[in-house]
Design a protein that fits this description.
With about 210 residues, the chain is of the alpha/beta class. It has one domain: Class I glutamine amidotransferase (GATase) domain (Rossmann fold), CATH 3.40.50.880. The chain is built from 7 helices and 11 strands. It has a 7-stranded mixed β-sheet, sandwiched between helices. Strands 3-4 form a two-stranded antiparallel ribbon. A two-stranded parallel sheet has the order 8-9. A hairpin with a 6-residue loop joins strand 3 and strand 4. The longest helix is centred in the last third of the chain and has 14 residues. The radius of gyration is 16 Å and the shape is globular. It starts with a strand and ends with a helix. This is DJ-1/PfpI family protein. InterPro entries: Class_I_gatase-like, DJ-1/PfpI, INH-QAR. It holds the Pfam family DJ-1_PfpI. One of its GO terms (biological process) is regulation of DNA-templated transcription.
């Protein structure tokens, strides 16, 4: 199984690193970071750079794609090379997936029409413009299209995919190996549980 994760300027690092860490444990699996050209791509904090070891042209037919989100997503919507690669790669995939605002790129590629999908809570309504039915869940599967909510939800999605690809025992072993047992120090991981005024503070971090 060959998994491709596209990088574009100002992606969110955890959207990439979380699913990468989980899926890299799958037996007989290769995970490749791709971009328009091979080389470094910097995240949305401007301080962390990842290296794309393949171009879109090098890997047109992966078995799985995981499209990250990030503060650069809206600019990336106008990147026809990226959107076209997603659209073409989907013809060959077992799963076409996204994390956070990466769902908007699936939408731009025409892959969300009539699908239930999720993304970061602040962007759920944006899915409607692509013909999707927004669902406020950590991970949503609609056929082979699988979308995850904001950032950390990519780990949940990846574990779900790993269970399907390699069995629940393998997925459980990986979850234990990476000690994924969330116990957040604050109960404000969603708008519903956040204290008054916190939604506005969070949105200010995203613009």
């Amino acid at each position: 199984m060959h998994i491709a994760i596209p990088l574009y300027p100002r992606f969110t690092a955890l959207d990439v690193a979380g699913p990468y860490t989980v899926m890299a444990f799958a037996p007989d699996t290769t995970v490749t970071l791709v971009a328009a050209e091979r080389g470094p791509v910097t995240d949305d904090q401007g301080t962390l750079t990842m290296i794309a070891t393949a171009s879109y042209a090098d890997l047109p037919d992966p078995d799985v794609i995981i499209v990250p989100g990030g503060l650069g997503t809206f600019d990336a919507l106008g990147d026809e090379a990226l959107v076209a690669w997603i659209r073409e790669a989907d013809r060959h995939t077992r799963w076409t997936t996204s994390v956070c605002s990466g769902a908007l790129l699936l939408g731009a590629a025409g892959l969300l029409e009539g699908a239930k999908a999720t993304t970061h809570w602040a962007l759920l309504d944006n899915l409607k413009q692509y013909g999707a039915e927004p669902v406020s869940e950590r991970s949503v599967a609609h056929g082979k299209i699988v979308t995850a909510a904001g950032v950390s939800a990519g780990i949940d999605m990846a574990l779900t995919l790993l269970a399907q690809a390699a069995g629940e025992v393998t997925a459980q072993a990986v979850q234990l190996a990476i000690e994924y047992a969330p116990e957040p120090p604050f109960g404000c991981g969603s708008p519903e549980t956040a204290p008054e005024g916190m939604v506005e503070r969070a949105i200010n971090l995203l613009v």
